[in-house]
Design brief:
heterodimer; A: 272 residues; mainly alpha; 8 helices; 52% helix; elongated; B: 441 residues; alpha/beta; Rossmann fold; 2 domains; 6-stranded parallel β-sheet; globular
Chain lengths: 272, 441
């Protein structure tokens, strides 16, 4: 959610709305205009994506309806069809009086139209064979779309849930930040290791912890190498090359080595 | 000065926007002039059934004269005629038939005001029978208070000559003025953006309201008819999503009669219709007012919220509300759920922003909508019109018998789409007029 700092006495609503819209665009990722979003929302896919609206027996229904319907009738229609007869005499007389008939009306457009219709019927019959395939494809598409729709809905719910959790966390974090008061002089002091040398008093005004650690290292560096003391000089300014691995038994773990570090087994210092 | 205030309904218990507006103006102007209200006997704006007795009465000290409506509205006929003129090519005769079917038809009211010895007649709501007929009968005395919303009626051809022919126009908002200028080309007619004030109590009691209705949590409020046409469906949808996202956010309190189902939600509280006292206490107790309406000529409740220092969250698709939010710097607006959630969250969670918006609202109300300001604007307009008695062009006559029946006028909804929209700049020059388009013969 948008956080706005209102510092001046003037509030500019236009600017606030610009900030809010910029924030929404940032969240959406893609800068769709409102019109585009409405256009997308207006696409009526719900009836396909809604699993309750899908007939699971779509294909069976189609097959059953095809089985109950008889094949569509058709006819052959040529130029001479209307003058035809199985009786030869009758056919002869019709052909004889054909010019007289054409004197009264023109049968050609009628013949032509019926011929075209006959051809269309033939083509339609062929195309119906493809319908089964189309229905199968459609059926599969609907199923896949339904699956996808459900998945998208699930994902949307998850995103909304995560978004609300995130918002909640953001608000909680802000609330906690508001409670904590930062004080520059209130840094936590370093805790000395058990058995370590007494801690020097901190310089007035507080001091940097790393500075104190450096001072301690310098003090250790000035000790004699043979001394048994607390802690091994890890990086003294001038370590003795004659006794590089002289066994030493520190009374306690040195401050710079983590206490849970296992003893080295490569000839390094160990208790003897 | 003698003034007639003409409005479709009138009464202390009638709470329609224009009717309340007319009552407030009549009562306020009666302190400066002799005011008489001329209205109908109807109480119901759907049927215009005569329910009040004709004759004279006094309402809050103002003389009110009622006239009977001769024909009740037939909703089916009105719907059919609306469909014809809004959606199809039509004729001027179709538009006149639409006006008659809309009502409230009261020729007696028109005759009385037209023959009365008034200096000016304030005609409320341009779209009704009485305004159109009186404006045509006495254009020199007619001052129109259009209360126009962005609906197709404004694009009907019969209203153009009326807007161009009256003496003056008192607009409710800059957006309304821009729309009427564009639709009718009446830039030359003296006009001023006035609006209306409100009787806001000086010290509303928020805690009394909370005790009475047992509301302990902070809430946003909606006041008005709970209707799909007022954008309440969208408001419920948005608010339910918002409530799911912010379980401890604001509640929503609804005040007004419901004509649509209200979702059962633990954070939505419907209180029904409230008295004015309760309403102002509720506004004072609320964190903000939400106005989800798409069409408003002037939202009085938004002004009342500002008067009480409450920010407003408005529907940005309503030009008037958006313009008022921008001009006042006292409200935010939304056009989608994301914007609704962000703006509501901003007002809810950001105390300084909430306070500044509220303060701006109070200043805006006092600067533009306090009663002395409103009264002064009306009186100045009357003084200006009285001083300007020069010759004026006559109102354009209606087309002849044949031309009136020629169906060559474009659908009003189509013309409305061509009108410019959006929040108006306060000091901008008004946009150019869009002339009524006729289909080629």
């Amino acid at each position: 959610m948008t956080d706005m700092n209102i510092r001046s006495d003037n509030v500019d609503v236009e600017q606030i709305m610009r900030q809010i819209r910029a924030r929404i665009r940032e969240k959406r990722g893609v800068d769709y205009t409102e019109e585009e979003i409405r256009e997308l929302a207006a696409v009526k896919l719900e009836q396909f994506l809604d699993p309750r609206g899908v007939r699971s027996d779509l294909l069976d229904q189609f097959r059953r309806s095809r089985a109950t319907l008889p094949p569509a009738p058709n006819f052959a229609f040529e130029e001479s069809t209307i003058f035809d007869s199985h009786r030869g005499l009758l056919r002869f007389i019709r052909n004889l009086f054909k010019p007289l008939l054409k004197l009264f009306f023109n049968p050609n457009p009628l013949i032509q139209a019926l011929h075209i219709q006959s051809e269309l019927n033939t083509r339609n019959a062929k195309r119906e064979e493809l319908d089964t395939l189309h229905y199968e494809v459609l059926h599969n598409l609907v199923l896949e779309l339904t699956r996808l729709g459900i998945e998208v809905k699930n994902l949307k719910m998850r995103v909304e849930s995560m978004s609300s959790r995130l918002d909640f966390d953001e608000r909680r974090a802000r609330a906690l930040e508001g409670v904590v008061v930062y004080r520059p002089g209130a840094a936590a002091p370093l805790q000395p290791p058990a058995g370590a040398e007494p801690r020097m008093p901190a310089p007035p005004g507080g001091g940097d912890p790393s500075e104190r650690r450096n001072r301690r290292r310098r003090r250790r560096g000035r000790r004699r190498p043979g001394d048994r003391g607390e802690g091994r000089p890890e990086s003294g300014p001038n370590p003795s090359p004659a006794q590089p691995f002289a066994p030493q038994a520190p009374a306690a773990a040195p401050a710079d080595i983590p206490p849970d570090r296992p003893p080295s087994d490569d000839g390094g210092p160990s208790e003897s | 000065m003698k003034l007639a205030v003409v409005v479709q309904r009138y009464g202390a218990d009638i709470n329609g926007g224009a009717e309340l507006h007319a009552r407030y103006i009549a009562e306020r102007l009666s302190r400066h002039a002799e005011v008489e209200v001329a209205t109908t006997c109807a109480k119901d704006y759907v049927t215009w059934r005569n329910e009040l007795p004709p004759g004279t009465e006094h309402v809050n000290g103002v003389t009110v004269r009622r006239f009977p409506v001769v024909r009740e509205r037939d909703p089916r006929e009105f719907g059919r005629r609306s469909q014809r003129v809004f959606e199809h090519e039509h004729s001027t005769a179709d538009e006149l038939a639409w006006l008659d079917s809309e009502g409230p038809s009261s020729p007696e009211l028109v005759d009385y005001v037209s023959r009365g010895r008034f200096d000016f007649a304030l005609l409320f709501s341009y779209r009704y029978y009485h305004s159109w007929h009186i404006a045509r009968r006495i254009p020199d005395k007619s001052v129109l208070v259009p209360t126009a919303e962005r609906d197709p009626a404004i694009a009907l051809g019969i209203f153009g000559p009326v807007f161009r022919g009256v003496r003056g126009v008192m607009y409710n908002s800059h957006e309304e003025r821009a729309m009427i200028h564009a639709a009718t080309g009446n830039q030359e007619v003296p006009g001023v953006v006035v609006g209306v004030g409100s009787e806001v109590p000086a010290r509303p009691d928020a805690s009394r309201f909370r005790r009475r209705f047992d509301l302990r949590r902070p809430f946003a409020i909606y006041i008005g008819r709970i209707d799909e046409n007022k954008g309440c469906g969208e408001l419920f949808s948005h608010f339910q999503r918002y409530a799911a996202t912010f379980p401890r956010g604001l509640d929503l309190v609804l005040v007004g009669s419901a004509v649509m189902p209200i979702p059962a939600h633990p954070r939505i509280h419907h209180l029904g219709f409230l008295s004015d006292e309760d309403k102002f206490d509720a506004l004072a107790a609320a964190d903000l007012l939400i106005m989800p309406s798409y069409f408003e000529s002037l939202s009085m409740v938004a002004l009342e919220a500002w008067a009480l220092g409450r920010p407003v969250l408005a529907n940005g698709r309503c030009d008037v509300l958006k313009g008022q939010c921008l001009r006042s710097n006292a409200g935010l607006f939304y056009e989608s759920y994301e914007e609704f959630a962000e703006t509501l969250y901003a007002v809810e969670s950001n105390g300084p922003l909430h306070n500044r918006l509220g303060q701006n609202g109070r200043d805006y109300f006092n600067r533009h909508y306090a009663w002395p300001v409103i009264e002064r604007k009306y009186l100045d307009m009357f003084a200006r019109l009285t001083a300007d008695r020069g010759p004026r062009p006559a109102m354009a006559p209606l087309p002849g018998w044949w031309a009136r029946r020629r169906r060559d006028l474009a659908p009003a909804a189509e013309r409305l789409r061509q009108l410019p929209s959006g929040a108006a700049e306060q000091h901008d020059a008004p946009p150019r007029a869009v002339a009524p388009r006729r289909r080629p013969a």
